[in-house]
Structures are given as structure tokens and as C-alpha cells.
Amino acid sequence: MANPFEKVDAPIWDQYPPQELVAIAFQYCESLTRREAGNFYHSFKYLPDEQRQAMCAVYAFCRRADDIADGDWKDVFPGGLGEDDPEAIAYRAKLEALSNKSTVIDQEAYETKLTQLFFFRKKLSTCYNGLTSTDPVFMALKDTVNKYNIPREYFDDLISGMEDDLFHNRYRTFDELYLYCYRVASVVGLMCIEIYGYEDQKAKRYAESWGIFMQLGNVLRDVGEDIGRDRVYLPMDELEANNISDTELAGDVRRNPQWEAYTIAYAKRARTYLREAKKLLPLLPRRTRYSPAAMIAFYDAILKQIVKKQGDVYSSRVKLSKPQKIWLAAAVYARYRFLPFFLTPVWDLFAVFGLLPKV
């Protein structure tokens, strides 16, 4: 996508930009979200305009960070000296000391990506000080964090999660996986609820569970793709306890009789976080409930498909068909926008018999 401010000479301004430029920055983020994340954008588009735009700014930030860490995106940081920048070198040394591990990727790629993430953090600083970045993602994000008071620590934690991928390609225990899931997914849920609005502080706990549930679903769905990049996010101690090896994950683990049982147990645990995540919905304003409810419903349906396919995440990418998406979206919209609260038990009863989706 073309950066609308590509020809602007100054990388930062010391004055807040005119609203016309901020509006262009939001348009850029919305176009990026619509193009790169159709399912997520669908869940955003029924929000009030201001909240929808804010969600797109948050998504654009997350997408850009992921594209740096896990893709080939190279951002532009005017004034930086790249991998030779003294600040970037000191930052790399500090992270290496803290992780007490060497990188798990090619050294040249590692230095490039970690340097990019370092300067990405510096761009983030413009959202919390008197400067404004001329990067449309950060211009829109600055407006968003100012309107909704989103704590910086959430964005910093997400970048830390991206950095984890440069040092870890295996997770020994579920606790280690949980921390990774928190950093790359739960903090996104915490950002979202600041935009949705809430009063009860328990919403934060449920938003954390929402992120854990969705990322656990991603981990199981993407086993085949991840092992191709020498990454295993499933806890190694659990795989070993079930006599499942790395070699099998790289081949046809479906032949291992323990695999199906493991995926069922894994999905069952993921659903404990699903139950917590659903408790978030009544704590949100009715007009914003559809957005998280739709995401929860889509990911739950994908998890059910994996179990139904006996853990086969290799033959093809597990995803919902267009009719499935339309049906789920319509059901979620009807329930969370129009269904009176007193009829919730009736809906749940019909859902038990499969006549309505469990959303």
C-alpha cells in the first residue's frame, strides 16, 4: 500500500497535525485492515465510526509489528543508522543478556528484525509524547491512544512478544506458552476493551482470557505451517508425555494414535478460556458486543472443525466457508444487538440441541 505521507520530508512533527491529515491516516489503516484481515474487519465494521477507525489503527500497529518479526516488511526510520546504530546495538545486547539465549533465526535477519523492532518502539513513543510521527499508522494510533487512554505497556508487551519469536522456537511448558500468548494476543484484547468501553474491572481478566483462547486456537491450527519454519508452539513437555515427537509433527503426526486424543484435550483446555472470554460480553456496551462476540464465535467454530477432523491440520488450512461465516455472523449480530436479556436462556437451550450456534 502506498504511504500517503511518503513524500513528507520530516519524519516527526512537534505540533499536532490537522484533522484532515489524521483522517487520511485512519483511512490508510482501515484500507490495510480490510485488505489483510477480512474476518477481523467484518467484526469491526458494525462499530460506531470512531471506534471502528480506532480498532483499525490498533490492527495496523499489530500487523506492522508482526510483518517485521515474521515477514519481510522493512520499515523506514529516518535518522537511524540501521544495524550499526549505537542505540540499536545496546538494545540488542540488553535483550540477549535478558533472554540468555542466542537467536533461533539467521544472524543477519535477526539483527535486521531486532533493529527494526527497536526503532518501532521509538516510533511508538511519539504516541505518548509531544511529537507526531508522519507514519500514518502511528499518526492514527496517537489519536486513538489519546481518545481512549490505552496504556503504553500493552503495545510494548506486544512488541516483546514479537521479539520472543527471535529467541524461541520451542516452548517447554504451558506457562511459557501462556506468557507468549498473553504478549501477542491478550494485550490486543486489553487494547480493544479500552476502545469498546467498560466499567467493571473484571473486564480486563476476561479480555486476557479472550486473547489466550484465540491464540491457543491459532497455535493448534497452524501446527503444520509452523513446523515448516522449525517452530513448535505446543508445549514440549505435553508432547513428550503423549509420545509425540518433533519429527512426527514435521511428517504425518496423524498416524500417532496419541495425536487425536491430545488435540481433544488441548481444545478442551482452550475452551476453559473461551468460557471466561464470554463473560466479557455482558460487561461491554451493547453497541460494541458484536465485535468481540463475532471473533470468539469464528475461532470456536475453527476449533470445533479441528476436533471434528481428528486433529488434521495438515491436509488443508482449517477455515470457515463463506456460508458458515455468514450464518455465524448473522446469529451473533441478532443475539448481541437485538436479543432481550431475558431470552438468553431460550437461545442457550436451542443451542444445546444444535438449532442455534453457541455464541
Name the CATH superfamily assignment of the largest domain: Farnesyl Diphosphate Synthase
CATH fold-level label of the largest domain: Farnesyl Diphosphate Synthase
| Shape, per Cα inertia axes | globular
The amount of beta strand, in percent, is under 5%
Largest sheet: 2 strands, antiparallel
Q: Can you tell me the residue ranges where pLDDT is under 50 for at least 5 consecutive residues? A: none
Helix share bin: 55-70%
Number of domain units? 2
Radius of gyration: 21 Å
Structural category is: mainly alpha
Secondary structure topology:
Layout: E1 12-13, H1 19-36, H2 38-44, H3 49-70, H4 86-99, H5 107-125, E2 132-133, H6 136-148, H7 152-167, H8 174-196, H9 202-221, H10 223-227, H11 236-241, H12 246-250, H13 257-278, H14 286-308, H15 322-337, H16 344-352
Antiparallel strand pairs: 1-2
Helix pairs in contact: 1-2, 1-3, 1-6, 2-14, 3-6, 3-7, 3-8, 4-5, 5-7, 7-8, 8-9, 9-13, 9-14, 13-14, 14-15
Descriptive notes:
The protein is an all-alpha fold. It folds into 2 domains: 11-150, no CATH class; 169-328 and 337-359, Farnesyl Diphosphate Synthase (Orthogonal Bundle), CATH 1.10.600. Helices cover 66% and strands 1% of the residues. It is built from 16 helices and 2 strands. The protein has helices at 19-36, 38-44, 49-70, 86-99, 107-125, 136-148, 152-167, 174-196, 202-221, 223-227, 236-241, 246-250, 257-278, 286-308, 322-337, 344-352; strands spanning 12-13, 132-133. It has a two-stranded antiparallel ribbon. Helix 1 crosses helix 6. 39% of the residues are buried. The model has no long low-confidence stretch (mean pLDDT 90).
